[in-house]
Design brief:
Elements lengths: L7 H7 L17 H4 L5 H5 L27 E10 L2 E2 L9 E3 L5 E8 L4 E8 L3 E12 L5 E24 L2 E18 L2 E21 L2 E8 L2 E8 L7 E7 L2 E9 L5 E10 L10 E11 L4 E10 L18 E12 L2 E9 L10 E10 L1
Antiparallel strand pairs: 1-4, 1-19, 2-3, 3-6, 4-5, 5-7, 6-7, 7-8, 8-9, 9-10, 9-11, 10-13, 11-12, 13-14, 14-15, 15-16, 16-17, 17-18, 18-19
Length: about 375
């Protein structure tokens, strides 16, 4: 008889999977407090703002209308590193959340003419691994007969085509997006695979009523459906459900006279209450960008990520606080058609149990 030492069932109960009507344990907006990869180093450096400003091909995940190419073509690469996050320490020792190996994006932008721009972006906007540690297997006599590393893993593969139309003081953007959600769970020699694939759109508008002021709005509709899951060598399929909630954002950006300083303020709303025992997310973002000279720009800002749980529900760890406040810092160096950007986002000033650090780097080439 095999005996698993680590009580994995505690993990499932602690995130309230049963009371959520059998919603999928990993393809789930509950994890936004860690899984988001923030794949735009410019926005990440200034409080992850940018709903109402112009940006590179990587910025279309923020607002598709922000795409603004300085030349005919653009190639861009982004990568995010995030630190491990201890989790559910009151239940299980040494349990933590960790980054998947690749958390990045690769994109190409194309200016069709003065009014139209488009491109293509492949990205991993959301991903994480729950490291369950080493599982020791024993027989009925307590003798070890084997061990393996157990984990639950989620990764989102996103394929996006933006279409941006500009006229005078108005920009309209629409991103056509096909997402492949993948969940993996390793339990001994049985690696469970869950799949959820969907098409969705992301719409954005930027209006510039006067030279130094712009307003932006974005909207992503809700999608939902069944997650099909299989074990190796098993003919039947397990089905769970998932909801990818509606998201809405609005903000403004003001550029001071001389174009040396920009300030941006964004509000982001996530309809997390579409799932039982989660509550709607309300985020406020503030960012500053300072032009040092023609080669250098520096940035700073802050934003919050609220605890996604409705604690009036049957959560197993209500004493833990998942609220986070991030401070952000960034810089860019430009040389002719090339730009390198880096950013750091850190939430260690937060009073809760979640404290993350993200480091984002980007390379842009215009030609």
């Amino acid at each position: 008889m095999k005996k698993i030492i680590l009580p994995i069932i505690i993990l499932l109960l602690s995130i309230n999977i049963y009371s959520q009507g059998f919603n999928d344990v990993m393809i789930n907006p509950f994890w936004y407090f860690y899984s988001n990869n923030y794949l735009d180093a410019v926005s990440s450096g200034k409080g992850y703002t940018g709903l109402s400003g112009t940006g590179y091909i990587s910025s279309i995940n923020h607002n598709p209308a922000s795409l603004e190419l300085s030349k005919k073509y653009q190639a861009g690469l982004q990568y995010t590193y995030k630190t491990n996050q201890p989790w559910l320490e009151s239940f299980i020792d040494n349990l933590h959340l960790e980054q998947n190996l690749f958390s990045g994006s690769l994109g190409f932008g194309y200016r069709i003419n003065k009014s139209f721009q488009t491109g293509f972006l492949y990205s991993n906007p959301s991903s994480l691994t729950v490291d369950l540690g080493t599982i020791i297997q024993t027989n009925e006599f307590g003798q070890e007969i084997g061990r393996y590393d157990a984990y639950e893993k989620y990764v989102l593969h996103s394929f996006s085509i933006p279409i941006v139309y500009s006229i005078e003081k108005f920009k309209l953007g629409l991103t056509l997006n096909y997402s492949l959600h993948r969940r993996y769970a390793n339990f001994d020699d049985s690696v469970f695979t869950g799949k959820f694939d969907r098409f969705n759109v992301h719409a954005g508008v930027i209006v510039k009523p006067i030279k130094n002021l712009s307003f932006g709005v974005t909207f992503i509709p809700e999608i939902s459906g069944d997650v099909g899951g299989t074990f190796p060598h098993v003919a039947s399929e397990e089905t769970t459900k998932t909801v990818i909630p509606l998201r809405f954002g609005a903000g403004f950006e003001y550029t001071f006279k001389g174009n040396f300083l920009k300030i941006g303020v964004d509000y982001l709303y996530s309809h997390l209450s579409a799932l039982d025992n989660l509550k709607d997310g309300h985020e406020v973002h503030l960012g500053l960008e300072y032009l040092v000279n023609k080669n250098w720009e520096v940035r700073t800002g802050f934003f919050n990520i609220p605890d996604p749980r409705d604690l009036s529900g049957n959560w197993g760890n209500p004493q833990d606080n998942y609220d986070q406040i991030f401070l952000t810092f960034g810089l860019s160096y430009k040389l002719k058609n090339f730009e390198a950007t880096a950013a750091v986002m850190d939430s260690h000033i937060s009073s809760g149990s979640i404290k993350n650090t993200y480091v984002n780097g980007g390379l842009i080439f215009n030609f």
